[in-house]
Design a protein that fits this description.
The protein folds into 3 domains: 4-70, Arc Repressor Mutant, subunit A, CATH 1.10.10.10; 76-180 and 356-381, Nucleotidyltransferase, domain 5 (2-Layer Sandwich); 191-350, 2-Layer Sandwich (Nucleotidyltransferase, domain 5), CATH 3.30.420.40. Helix 2 crosses helix 3. It has helices spanning 7-18, 24-31, 35-47, 111-129, 177-188, 253-260, 268-276, 281-305, 316-322, 324-334, 355-368, 371-381; strands spanning 51-55, 66-70, 76-82, 86-92, 99-105, 133-140, 143-145, 148-151, 172-176, 196-203, 205-212, 215-216, 309-314, 346-348. By secondary structure, it is of the alpha/beta class. Strands 5-4-3-6-9 form a 5-stranded mixed sheet, sandwiched between helices.
Length: 383
């Protein structure tokens, strides 16, 4: 069991994560501690190579101050983003800001080949970081249950074991990409400050996440948030997931191709982006139909989940922007009447394509910043 001596230190590290560049004075106010206590805690964390302290930008003629930052030699986590067309690896320190270190498009999509390519990047990174590396988190474009990929239909995968990617002895997390993007938006993005937030993203299909106090609602087995497989679509259409009538099929590039009478695209995301940029009436009508389906479904989720704010990621934001009237009409019309005078705001996500990486880093740091970890880190540094 971890020593209770780390309680104050963990509170300090959590605030530094939440508010990059915070001063000691602001930290004392946030935590309700005396300036002397905060000075003692931060000095201790600097001695353990957990925090650094750098001069703040000069403002006026007042007394110069400093801001708290992650120590450059402090603990690190590795975030892996496994997407439909490619994969990326990034390293993050205690601020949770991912720094890209490797990326590649899939040479082929066989699980063994993809796992081997990513595994090589992970091993190279682990070798370079040594025992500074404390956890690995993998974001995957697929359904995750109990920390395992059970289906990634757009990659053509069934169950796949990604646990070999993690170096032995380190915490290894596997999460759905849309869920992680929702976590990132809730903690430091467009939904920051809202206790209950709904994230909806369109890539190849649709996914999302409900977060409560910045933590994802995973469901009984960890597979919650598969919003794209709600039966909001045409029951005559069979989804690659195996279900009929999935919402997935009504909002992405496959839906746009169907409305335009064109073949199903090999890369639905790139195809959708191209259709959104087209000025012709046929493309406009297809986009309006997809935006209507998006707005209707989001309204259904708002009715069911009661979020304080909704964020739109991936292609969902440009889809709404390209057919704003269609989206708003469908969204408002789909809300229960008592919600219409004061609906939750629907905001564009702000972290873009890096949302899942930010979310993976955040959850990896959640696993790392514990009393047990600080005990082990103190032994490592002789503190």
């Amino acid at each position: 069991m971890a020593s209770p001596r780390w309680h104050g230190a963990l509170a300090v590290l959590d605030e530094v994560r939440r508010t990059p560049g915070i001063t000691r004075a602001a930290l004392a106010q946030r935590l309700g501690l005396s300036s002397g206590t905060v000075t003692e805690l931060t000095a201790r964390l600097r001695g353990l190579s957990l925090l650094g302290e750098t001069p703040a930008p000069a403002v006026g003629r007042g007394r110069p101050t400093t801001v708290l930052t992650p120590h450059p030699d402090g603990p690190a986590v590795l975030a892996v983003d496994l997407r439909h067309e490619d994969w990326r690896c990034a390293v993050a320190g205690l601020d949770g800001n991912p720094r890209m270190i490797a990326a590649a498009r899939h040479a082929d999509r066989s699980p063994d080949r993809v796992r081997d390519e990513i595994g090589q990047a992970v091993r190279r990174t682990a070798g370079g970081l040594g025992d500074r590396l404390r956890a690995v988190a993998v974001s995957v474009a697929g359904t995750v249950r109990g920390g395992h990929v059970v289906q990634a239909s757009t990659l053509g995968w069934g169950p796949v074991d990604l646990s070999p990617l993690g170096p032995p002895g380190l915490p290894m997390l596997v999460e759905n990409d849309a869920r992680l993007a929702g976590v990132a938006e809730a903690r430091g993005g467009a939904a920051a400050g809202s206790s209950t937030a709904l994230h909806v993203t369109v890539e190849v299909g649709l996914g999302g996440c409900l977060t409560v106090d910045g933590r994802p609602v995973r469901g009984a087995t960890g597979a919650g948030g598969e919003f794209g497989h709600l039966p909001f679509g045409d029951r005559a259409l069979r989804c690659p997931c195996g279900a009929a009538g999935c919402w997935d099929l009504m909002v992405d590039g496959r839906a746009l191709a169907r409305h335009l009478g064109e073949p199903a695209p090999a890369d639905p995301r790139t195809y959708a982006a191209a259709v959104l940029a087209r000025p012709d009436p046929a493309a406009g009508a297809a986009v309006a139909a997809a935006a209507t389906a998006l707005g209707t479904g989001v309204a259904g989720l708002v009715n069911a989940l009661d979020p304080g704010v909704v964020t739109l990621g991936g292609l969902a934001a440009p889809l709404r922007a390209a057919a704003a009237t269609a989206f708003t009409t469908a969204f408002t019309g789909g809300l229960m009447s008592f919600r219409r005078p004061d609906p939750p705001p629907v905001r564009d996500a702000v972290l873009g394509d890096d949302g899942a990486l930010h979310g993976a880093a955040a959850l990896a740091l959640d696993a790392v910043l514990t009393g047990e970890m600080l005990d082990a880190w103190a032994r490592r540094t002789g503190g």
